[in-house]
Amino acid sequence: MKCSRTGxxxxxxxxxxxxxxxxxxxxxxxxxxxxxxxxxxxxEAWFVQDATVPLVAMEYAFAGGAAQDPRDKPGVGHMVAxxxxxxxxxxxxxxFRERLDRHAIELSFTIERDELRxxxxxxxxxxxxxFGLLQLALTSPRFDADDIERIGSQIxxxxxxxxxxxxxxxxxxxxxxxxxxxxxxxPSHGTIESIPTIKADxxxxxxxxxxxKDRLKIAVVGDIEPAVLAKMLDQTFGGLPAKGDLTxxxxxxxxxxxxxxxxxxxxxxxxVMFGGPGIKRHDPxxxxxxxxxxxxxxxxxxxxxxxxxREKRGLxxxxxxxxxxxxxxxxxxxxxxxxxxxxxxxxxxxxxxxxRFAENGPTPKDLDDAKSYLKGSQMLELxxxxxxxxxxxxxxxxxxxxxxxxxxxxxxxxxxxxQARAVAKRLWGQGLLTVIVGRSxxxxxxxxxxxxxxxxxxxxxxxx
Amino acid sequence: xxxAQRAVIPALAALIMCLAVLLALPAALxxxxxxxxxxxxxxxxxxxVVIIPDHRTPVVTQMIWYKVGSAxxxxxxxxxAHFLExxxxxxxxxxxxxxxxxxxxxxxxxxxxxxxxxxxxxxQRVPRDQLATMMAFEADRMTGLVLKDENVLPERDVVLxxxxxxxxxxxxxxxxxxxMAALYLNHPYGRPVIGWxxxxxxxxxEDALAFYKRFYAPNNATLVIAGDVDAEKIRPEIEKTFGQVxxxxxxxxxxxxxxxxxPVAPRTVTLADxxxxxxxxxxxxxxxxxxxxxxxxSPALDVLAQLMGDGSNAYLYRALVVDKPLAVGTNATxxxxxxxPGQFSIAVAPKxxxxxxxxxxxxxxxxxxxxxxxxxxEDLERVKTQLIxxxxxxxxxxxxxxxxxxxxxxxxxxxxxxxxxxxRIRAVTAAQVQNVARKWLVKTRSVTGYLIKDSTPAREEKRx
Lengths: 464, 464
Fold this sequence. Notes:
Chain A is of the alpha+beta class and 464 residues long. Chain A is built from 15 helices and 14 strands. Chain B has helices at residues 17-24, 80-87, 99-106, 131-143, 149-168, 171-183, 197-200, 205-215, 231-241, 297-309, 315-323, 356-372, 377-394, 398-410, 415-419, 421-427, 430-440; strands spanning 39-42, 48-53, 59-66, 110-115, 120-127, 221-227, 267-273, 280-287, 327-335, 342-350, 446-453.
């Protein structure tokens, strides 16, 4: 947490009668249960009580995110996330941050495409102070002019750096290629042009529309009594408006492949981002696609792309692919970096392997191995308080049931070879959207004007 | 997006600040509030073992630390320790290439490896019942490695791509490389962990094997096991696997490297690159490490770094970002987990148009003020609380604990010293912090690096 804060900021640049329903054993935190906590004030949270380490970790999300930025001002949500911990109520930034630091409370916000997320971690004995400061931050942020200027200049600095960072350029241009003018195609961290135009009123307006109780999800893990927690949740979130005021976001299918864009940049290593239309979370084929993606390019040292591009040919250090799902769309996206003079060869190797996978799908052994991995890895993904809280929040934002952790393995097992092969063809058989950032390439990619300015970081799939 | 990387190199701090921050703490570790104390013992063949129980989840981390890093390389062979780390995944006489990784994957596990100046480490995180299998694989790999040109040569290309990604594509990382080379006039810490490119290109299978035979042995390693294990029950399994590997008495127990002369001249380096959109100023001081420092100095340097650099209450941030509009961000880090003298580093990202001279005057004024005027008691208390809390937060993650104990013991700290780190932080006085600032943050001990935009017309450079 500390790290990500340093990284984002500097790295130059994220009661009395409550109902308690207990659900079955979580494989991780073996002795514990996920509780569905409903406070007297009606706030709901998924909660795991664990006293092994004297800390409390809370992750929560408001529906909205960068997709709620005004069309002409990308970056408003990001700026709100960056300023919510910079002073609230009677406490100017310096005092607010001193109170956090003095109690070693970790409080931060990040923007995703569909959500504004918050994270709070504290030592058990400082829970009162931590929730109190969060309540202030959520209900009466100051947005002082000098803080807006200071944080704005940090964001601008980050955007300037990213304007010559090949990975950032690839990401930004990829979402533009995939989503065009749809809100998902906009740079979620803003642009060098938009940031200076964002004023306190824009921030307040965003807060008014997004920070509300109706689409709030909360997950808490740690050493705290449920009755105490319920009281704190009511105090923290109870004062927020009952309903938000979100602009509807239309569903969108990513651009039809094949298409490509080339962004010239004089760097020794060419960065290639590739992908295409993906799959939404509640599609009946989701789990089959998830397994397929793991086999093809999931983050392991044994995926097909890893073997073909890295191990056999030595063309890249890093190559991986992820499924990304949003409320209104889905993508698969892969990325690799390869020496300029062999970029064409790398792209061909990627294309060929993806085509082969689309045509033949996984082998029975691939499928068994992948199922075995996914079933075993669940426990590892949830082995710290913070990771468990993050996982429990993700299940909620994905609208999954509270006993999903238990059901997941049977969903994995239910995927058949035929289904996996059909999905492989459906997702990976249409060709690729490709963005290449590097020295000029003799390849066929149509030069597209470089758009230095901003990055649109792809969302990271969380636990499932 | 870049999951699953092998070979993290914490030395390139600019690139992976998170890890650097984590390792910068001299193996800061937990006063064990609720978790059990680590158990240590040494096998007859010299293998040191540290067991850190955490029974929340049925997961274990096995981490083996070899007491060999880039600072142990023969001059002319820079990058060899890291290259060998990559090659350790290429199979043994007993297990063909890929079998170990696929076994980890099939059980849902996670693996990786890392190289630094003083150590090389390998880890797997797996369900508890897989630990014995992991031990058998890792013990086999200690002496059984088989290397063939057909997988050595593509892997060297992979390492060159890693170099491109981490260093060549990143002007700030190139600056850090130059600063380190200028800071260490005689000690091998001046060489990049990943190596100089022209030397990486020439590394061979024979070089790697000779290095492996020279340094990989049980008497030159520490095995850390963290997680759901019982020390008494696991010991026979360790004896059966690692215990069977013969020691190499020829490996000297003391690691003696050429030492630095007394520094007498402040140095500056300037790196100009056309891609620089955010200039940077970095100042590195040569300071004692946790192993070379006089009693009390290393924790005082930890406190000093926190006081100057971490968060928006830090002195550098207040002086250069808030009070005067000179910079967008600041940072200070003490890198003290090392066998030989380490670094205290300051980084400042100036605002557009800000003058480097003014920024430097600002830094010097902060240091002068620290040396001259008493440190307010509440500031000292605040940063000590934050540091000590990190030790509690660390207990939430068995991997973090394994890294702290592994790194600390590998550079020569005892388990007790690592464990009692919070007590030593608590004991730091204002006078001690002033003393280390006065004694070590001296210009003659420093290198100042400037990252600037190269605005001369592009010239032909050798393309790789």
